Amino acid sequence: MKHKITTPLTKDKIEILKAGDVVELSGTVYTARDAAHKRLFEMILAGEKLPFDLSDQVIYYMGPCPAPPGRVIGSAGPTTSGRMDYYTPKLIEMGITGMIGKGQRSREVIDAMVKYGAVYFGAVGGAGALISKSVQSQEIIAFEDLGTEAVRKLSVVNFPLIVVIDRYGNNMYDIGRSRWKDI
Questions:
Q1: Are the C-beta atoms of 117 and 169 separated by less than 8 Å?
Q2: Which residues are catalytic?
Q3: Are 99 and 121 in contact (CB under 8 A)?
Q4: Which residues form the Fe-S hydro-lyase tartrate dehydratase beta-type catalytic domain (predicted)?
């Protein structure tokens, strides 16, 4: 099934998404990679105010390339999600409802997705230049010293995604493997 969804990514929106669905996402998406996740996690543990409200938000695991002349952002492809898995269950508990990346997730992340209600979207690795065309604006909102790994607030229109793991724990990686195991 194909869905057009606008953020914030509320619980009622994720309830209808199933593993394998195609989504065109519009609205606000935040970027954060390894170093930013570590800082956010440490801020949560210290009881500090975060640079943005996590409730009903989507985090894209991406650090962009510099923008070429006339463009808002450079290549903006996903990074491997597993590098954020240590921190992700806490961020989901705090309100994150969507994550965008590539690759498999840990059992702890999937369990948190089911318990608190979140989805994992896949973006096509290797298509960063194409994906960047969906980004209408960007601004660094936290951790500027991290360079490309700073937290950015992106405005996206029709950002192409696939639901890899839905809020019920159905996982396209497992589904795909099971279809081919006896061949």
A1: no
A2: 37
A3: yes
A4: 6-174
